[in-house]
Amino acid sequence: MTVREVAEGLGLRVFAAEAASLDRPVLGGYCGDLLSCAMAGARSGQVWVTLQAHRNVVAVATLTDVACVIITEGAQPDPETVQTAERENVALLGSDRGSFAVVAGLIRLGVPA
Amino acid sequence: MEARWARLDLHLHTVLSACAEAEMTPPRIVERALELGLAGIAITDHNSAENVAAVQEAAAGTGLVVVAGLEIQTAEEVDLLALFDELSQALTVQDRVYAGLGRARNRPEFFGEQIVVDRHGYPIRENTLLLQGRTDLSIEEAARLVHDHGGLAVAAHIDRPSRSLLGTLGFLPVGLDLDGIEVSRHANLEQLQGAHPGLAKLGAASFGDAHRLSEMGGRTEFLLRGVRLQDIGRCFRGECSGALRITDRTGQGA
Question: B139 in contact with A at a CB cutoff of 8 Å?
């Protein structure tokens, strides 16, 4: 399961993504909105599901080396955040649905829990 | 006039904050501040400055300086103290913060009442917004908004496990423009600075964050000629011989 397959399978918006980052395999997932918890709990190669859309999400995604971030509830990253994500090669995706529904979708697609 | 060490408590709540006690009325806050020998206080209710005017009126003629402020909860759920020279600046920032609070409403039976009062402490009306909630501004955006309106941005109780820079966000973002930091009563500042080297560059204070009268005072002194916001800012930033220090003496007689 790659980031691209996740994005297509769940009909996600792509705010920022390099071709290479779309081909990254998704090894599992982490869900949460407190950055301090994500820093401690998210693992390299996972998809991180959060309703936060601010710039520090990109910093935490870089630090934890997650495969991609899915921003939920229709939250929009500002242009500065998108630029930072592009510069740092962080795949930033979005959904209008809530985190619960997005996680359910990921499980259906076969992302390991 | 020679600069003197003056104790200021720049973080305190009134009955407008749902979690504050009913005793946090303008006359009682002013009375307690004078008892404690404070040169100045700041009124920093959650996401709101609607009780600042009442406390300023209650303090008129006493010599106590009342700084206009609010405690903004950012999108990351980090509390940021915003302090202003003029009430109008605080109210402009408050309006932007209100716009980002969303549609959630306070449930007084659950969270507590949020009361706008007059200088005597008599209720004028209830604020129905969920002031305990977060606004839609990131901490960088909130700090920029505060500075654009002439204020000081001080990260609140950074060592607390919730609603704080280190507890919620977990790190000091590069490029975040803060004037200073506040640590809680029991913090070990040197340990925090060791773990987060960027903090050592920021002036550190420890205020009361009072939700009841007995919590007022804090333990921070500023080297000032007069209690003016720009001089407080210089103390935080260590400019022009401005300085501040956290003392052992608490303002609570404890």
Answer: yes
